[in-house]
């Protein structure tokens, strides 16, 4: 009985690192509004923010690119520093009466209810940490049929796909009064229009 050996092309991973000066230039602002907000943070919060421009920080590690198809290499975008982000006129900002992020799960997120609940718990924890100071709330999970979305079966994967635009219309109707935004999550494939194979997500500011 013989043994067949197969040689596979090695995966070359690239690490994206930035110098301390590059990070400081991108993150440190002299904008008086931002400086005022920083000064209002307590010592622990300021220490956490300061970690952002430390190259050796455990909290903000380098980005690893696993293949040329990774988004950051296959979809190049113009760089944006924090000052540009903060000054963007289309940036949605919370207000005293709209400070809640709502999560709407659509369909089952796992093989069991326990797995689905675990995923939701992880996502809520991430949102609370990343969007510090905002409330994160969970809406009652709904089946796909409740969204009344258009759907199709992908010719490439034979998987069910639901129309992302229809999902947005459904979420708009479900948006509570105190919501900064509503985030819909599903493990079902999405497509934005008939000419597209799929889309990872879609957003609307309306």
UniProtKB/TrEMBL annotation:
InterPro entries: Archaemetzincin (IPR052009), MetalloPept_cat_dom_sf (IPR024079). One of its GO terms (molecular function) is metallopeptidase activity. It comes from the Eukaryota. This is Archaemetzincin-2. It comes from Piliocolobus tephrosceles (Ugandan red Colobus).
């Amino acid at each position: 009985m013989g043994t067949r050996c197969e040689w596979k092309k090695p995966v070359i991973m690239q690490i994206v690192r930035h110098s301390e000066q590059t990070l400081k230039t991108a993150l440190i602002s002299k904008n008086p509004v931002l400086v005022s907000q920083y000064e209002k943070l307590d010592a622990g919060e300021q220490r956490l923010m300061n970690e952002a421009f430390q190259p050796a920080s455990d909290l903000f590690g380098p980005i690893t690119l696993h293949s040329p198809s990774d988004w950051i290499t296959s979809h190049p975008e113009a760089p944006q520093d924090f000052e540009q982000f903060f000054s963007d006129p289309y940036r949605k900002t919370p207000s005293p009466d709209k400070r809640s992020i709502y999560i709407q799960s659509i369909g089952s997120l796992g093989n069991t209810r326990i797995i689905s609940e675990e995923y939701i718990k992880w996502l809520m924890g991430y949102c609370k940490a990343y969007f510090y100071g905002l409330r994160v709330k969970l809406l009652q999970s709904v089946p796909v049929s409740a969204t009344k979305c258009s759907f199709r079966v992908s010719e490439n994967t034979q998987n069910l796909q639901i129309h992302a635009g229809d999902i947005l219309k459904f979420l708009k109707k479900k948006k509570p009064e105190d919501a900064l935004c509503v985030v819909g999550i599903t493990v079902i494939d999405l497509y934005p229009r008939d000419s597209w194979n799929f889309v990872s997500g879609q957003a609307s500011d309306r």
